[in-house]
Specification:
- By secondary structure, the protein is α/β, with parallel strands linked by helices.
- Helices cover 43% and strands 25% of the residues.
- It has a 6-stranded mixed beta sheet with strand order 4-3-5-10-6-9. A two-stranded antiparallel sheet has the order 1-2.
- The N and C termini lie far apart (54 Å).
C-alpha cells in the first residue's frame, strides 16, 4: 500500500516545482522530503522525478502519478471542509455540473426550483465537458449534472438520468443576412451560411438529419461546442444559428436578431443526472420533480 505521507510530499514537490520550495511550504528540510520521496520511489519500483540541470522534472510515470495525486488530495481537502462545516452548512451546499452544451438561461430555469426551497441553499456551479463532469459526479464532488443527453450507457456509473425539458428549435439571423422575405421557412436555410452545434452536442445529429430530409444544403461556416459562442458569431452576422424555442424571445432581445422560423421536427432535450447517494438531496429532488413544469 502507498505511504500517503510520502505521496503527499511527492505531490507538494510536483506542484511547487522544486524540493526547496516544497520544503518551505511544508516546514521540513529538503533532505527529509528528498529522502521520503526516494523511499516512495523504491517501494513502487519507479522514478517519479529526473534531474534536469540543477532542477528536477516529472518523469512520464510521475506525470501519471500527479493526476491521481491531484484527485486524491483535492478530494481530501473537500472532505475536510465538509466535515468541518456544521450539518446545516453541509445541507445547504448544492454542487451542480453544467455541460457546456446547455444554454446558460436554460440551466437557470432548470435549477430555479432548487433556489425556491424553504431552506435556502448555496449553489456551486461548474461548467465543462459531460465526461469530465460525470467523473466528478461519480466521486461525489457534484450532486447533479445538467446535460443535453442522458448518461452514456458505456460509462460505468450507477446513476439516474431524468429528462427535464424538451422543446423545438428556432432559427435566428441578423436582418441583413436573410435577403428575401418572400421565402417560406425553411427555404431560408438553403445555400445560406449556417452555424451549427459541435459534434459533441446531442442536437447536432437531429439537426443534420432534418436538413438532409428536406434536401437543404446550407453552407456550414462554423461549429461550436459552446452555444453562447455560437450565438455571438450569429449576432456578428457570420451565419444563421439555432437555439431552443423556449428562449426565443430572450435570444432576439439579447442579440438583436430576428427569428426566421422554428420547427418541432428537431428538438433539444435536457437532463438531470444524479447518483444514488445524492438522490435524496433536497435540491436534487426539487429539480427532478418540478422542472417538467417549465414553460
Amino acid at each position: 500500500m502507498i505511504n500517503y505521507k510520502q505521496f503527499h510530499y511527492f505531490w507538494a514537490v510536483a506542484k511547487a516545482g522544486s524540493i526547496v520550495k516544497a520544503s518551505r511550504q511544508l516546514h521540513l528540510t529538503p533532505q527529509t522530503i528528498s529522502g521520503q520521496i526516494a523511499i516512495l520511489e523504491a517501494s513502487l519500483g519507479v522514478s517519479l522525478f529526473r534531474k534536469v540541470g540543477r532542477g528536477i522534472e516529472l518523469t512520464e510515470t510521475g506525470e501519471l502519478a500527479l493526476t491521481y495525486a491531484d484527485d486524491i488530495f483535492q478530494t481530501g481537502n473537500a472532505l475536510e471542509e465538509t466535515l468541518r462545516a456544521g450539518s446545516k452548512e453541509r445541507s445547504r451546499l448544492f454542487r451542480v455540473g453544467i455541460s457546456d452544451a446547455v444554454p446558460k438561461s436554460i440551466a437557470y430555469r432548470l435549477l430555479a426550483p432548487a433556489m425556491s426551497l424553504a431552506e435556502p441553499i448555496k449553489i456551486i456551479c461548474r461548467e465543462g465537458k459531460l465526461e469530465s463532469l460525470l467523473g466528478e459526479l461519480a466521486i461525489h464532488r457534484l450532486d447533479l449534472v445538467l446535460s443535453d443527453r442522458p448518461m452514456p450507457s458505456e460509462i460505468d456509473i450507477k446513476g439516474r438520468s431524468q429528462q427535464l425539458l424538451e422543446c423545438g428549435v428556432s432559427f435566428f439571423a441578423v436582418s441583413g443576412l436573410v435577403q428575401s422575405s418572400a421565402l417560406v421557412f425553411p427555404q431560408h436555410l438553403s445555400n445560406t451560411p449556417l452555424l451549427v452545434p459541435g459534434e459533441d452536442s446531442a442536437v447536432r445529429k437531429r439537426l443534420m438529419s432534418w436538413l438532409n430530409t428536406l434536401r437543404m444544403q446550407p453552407q456550414i461556416v462554423g461549429e461550436f461546442d459552446d452555444s453562447a459562442l455560437m450565438r455571438a458569431f450569429g449576432q456578428a452576422g457570420v451565419g444563421i444559428f439555432c437555439a431552443p424555442s423556449i428562449i426565443a424571445d430572450e435570444v432576439i432581445a439579447q442579440h438583436n436578431v430576428i427569428k426566421i422560423g422554428e420547427t418541432d421536427q428537431v428538438t433539444e432535450r435536457f437532463y438531470a443526472i444524479s447518483v444514488e447517494r445524492r438522490a435524496n438531496h433536497p435540491a436534487v429532488v426539487a429539480v427532478n420533480m418540478t422542472s417538467s413544469k417549465i414553460s
